[in-house]
């Protein structure tokens, strides 16, 4: 006999079916929207010239001409042999680079419309990124290495992929990590004392109320677009159409480094969303140049770590790093700039009360609109994945700025040779510290594998 109220399992079944229908409708809407936006582009591309199915029969879709004829929906349905990718063809070469680096699994994650809402990079006191263990100590298993090495990307048409390291490649990294730990077991006791002191001092300093502009403001405005021209202004759109801004820097003529929260909200597979319409303006020094479209470079693909994109309710600020592929047709603007190198800061002091004098340059929101500012300041709490400073002056808009070293080599009868190397990316601020996400060796390996440049 049935009561007036349906059994709970029937209610749950109906709810699941309803949610599934909503999900399908949303995906179809995104497919239509994406197909409309890219209908004039040649976006369906072959994974290989020839492949065979499990029965050994050649699949027609494996041939280049067949893939190119497929619309978006059919292309995705044949994802085993075709890729939907509206970025330039050199993206396929980047996939090859990833495969050569051990990334054997490429998974289609979905269609996105860039409808994320911007995440404010402010962290409450006492909720700072967990970085008291070293990057090697936390990589105990193959699963740990795969998780920390996973990357996700979105192309200009909103197609999202995830790239996962193979088990064999992860085992090689694990063995290298074990060897490194064994080598460092008998290192001097100073570093151990620094770590212990750092933990105690961090608790003390977290209780001290400070502002994000510490003491006197000693930032210097850069008014010449040719000075530190690797740095630039990054703008993008949220779901509501609001224009947001970050800072970024060239690490190759067509690749920029920025913060992950400038490309993705970091809320995991369900709530996580990308932003959209990224535009990079290299060497921008005033607002007037923003109105000239010839000064902008369009982005065609954005990348970040899976640890950030899959973070869920707990944002992984220590992975707040992203890199963006720029449209090759527009990069004549940035071709004359000298890109930053990518480093890991092996020679900087770790622990608390360190005196690491490093550079940063970006577009802080507390200064005049679209002006660029440089500072040399001390990062005095250095941990495995983050650095914190109560000396560097940072505000909204600085997100994505590089923290870098600068060395000058004097050559007789020639101009000095200046080498700049990024070690960290400005990520978050709170009332006690300003912070950045460090580029560890593992993170550098991932970035280099995906861009083929380091």
Would you give an account of this structure?
With 454 residues, the chain is of the alpha+beta class. It is 25% helix and 27% strand. It has ten helices and 19 strands. The strands form three sheets. A six-stranded antiparallel barrel has the order 7-8-9-12-11-10. It has a six-stranded antiparallel barrel with strand order 14-15-16-19-18-17. It has a two-stranded antiparallel ribbon with strand order 1-2. Strand 8 and strand 9 form a beta hairpin. Helix 5 (142-149) packs across helix 6. The longest helix has 30 residues, at 8-37. It is globular. The N and C termini lie far apart (71 Å).
What tags apply to this protein structure?
454 residues, alpha+beta, 6-stranded antiparallel β-barrel, 10 helices
How is the secondary structure organized here?
Blueprint: H1 8-37, E1 44-46, H2 64-68, H3 72-77, E2 82-84, H4 90-100, E3 105-111, H5 142-149, E4 151-155, E5 159-164, H6 167-184, H7 189-206, E6 220-222, E7 231-237, E8 243-252, E9 255-258, H8 268-271, E10 276-282, E11 297-305, H9 306-309, E12 322-326, E13 341-342, E14 351-362, E15 372-382, E16 386-389, E17 402-409, E18 417-429, E19 434-438, H10 441-451
Parallel strand pairs: 13-18
Antiparallel strand pairs: 1-2, 3-5, 4-5, 4-11, 6-15, 7-8, 7-10, 8-9, 9-12, 10-11, 11-12, 14-15, 14-17, 15-16, 16-19, 17-18, 18-19
Helix pairs in contact: 5-6
């Amino acid at each position: 006999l049935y009561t007036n109220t349906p059994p709970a399992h029937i209610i749950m079944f109906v709810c699941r079916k309803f949610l599934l229908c909503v999900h399908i409708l949303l995906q179809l809407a995104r497919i239509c929207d994406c197909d409309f936006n890219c209908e004039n582009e040649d976006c369906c591309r072959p994974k290989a010239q020839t492949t065979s199915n499990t029965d050994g029969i050649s699949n027609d879709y494996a041939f280049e001409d067949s893939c190119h004829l497929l619309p978006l929906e059919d292309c995705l349905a044949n994802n085993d042999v075709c890729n939907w990718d509206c970025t330039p063809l050199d993206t396929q070469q980047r996939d090859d680079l990833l495969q050569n680096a051990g990334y054997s699994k490429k998974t289609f994650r979905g269609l996105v419309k860039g409808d994320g809402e911007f995440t404010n990079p402010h962290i409450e006191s006492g909720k700072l990124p967990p970085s008291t263990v070293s990057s090697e100590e936390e990589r105990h298993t193959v699963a740990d290495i795969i998780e920390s090495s996973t990357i996700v990307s979105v192309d200009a048409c909103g197609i999202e992929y995830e790239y996962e390291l193979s088990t064999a490649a992860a085992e090689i990294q694990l063995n290298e990590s074990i060897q490194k730990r064994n080598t460092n077991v008998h290192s001097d006791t100073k570093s151990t004392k620094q770590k212990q002191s750092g933990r105690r001092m961090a608790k003390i300093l977290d209780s001290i109320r400070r502002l994000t502009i510490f003491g006197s403001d000693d930032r210097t405005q850069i008014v010449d677009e040719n000075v530190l021209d690797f740095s630039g202004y990054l703008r993008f759109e949220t779901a509501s159409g609001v224009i947001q801004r970050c800072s970024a820097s060239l690490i190759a003529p067509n690749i920029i480094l920025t913060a992950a929260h400038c490309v993705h909200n970091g809320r995991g597979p369900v709530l996580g969303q990308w932003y959209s319409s990224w535009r990079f303006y290299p060497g921008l020094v005033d607002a007037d140049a923003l109105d000239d479209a010839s000064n902008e470079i369009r982005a065609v693909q954005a990348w970040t770590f899976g640890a950030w994109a899959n973070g869920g309710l707990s944002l992984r600020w220590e992975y707040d790093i992203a890199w963006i592929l720029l449209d090759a047709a527009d990069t004549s603007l940035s071709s004359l700039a000298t890109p930053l190198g990518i480093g890991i800061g092996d020679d900087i002091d770790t622990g608390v009360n360190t005196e690491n004098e490093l550079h940063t340059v970006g577009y802080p929101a507390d200064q005049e609109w679209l002006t660029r500012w440089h500072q040399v300041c001390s990062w005095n709490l250095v941990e495995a994945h983050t650095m914190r400073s109560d000396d560097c002056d940072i505000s909204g808009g600085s997100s994505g700025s590089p923290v870098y070293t600068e060395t000058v080599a004097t050559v007789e009868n020639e101009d000095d040779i200046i080498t700049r190397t990024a070690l960290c990316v400005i990520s978050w601020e709170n009332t006690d510290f300003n912070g950045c996400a460090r580029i560890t060796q593992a993170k550098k390996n991932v970035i280099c594998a995906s861009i083929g440049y380091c």
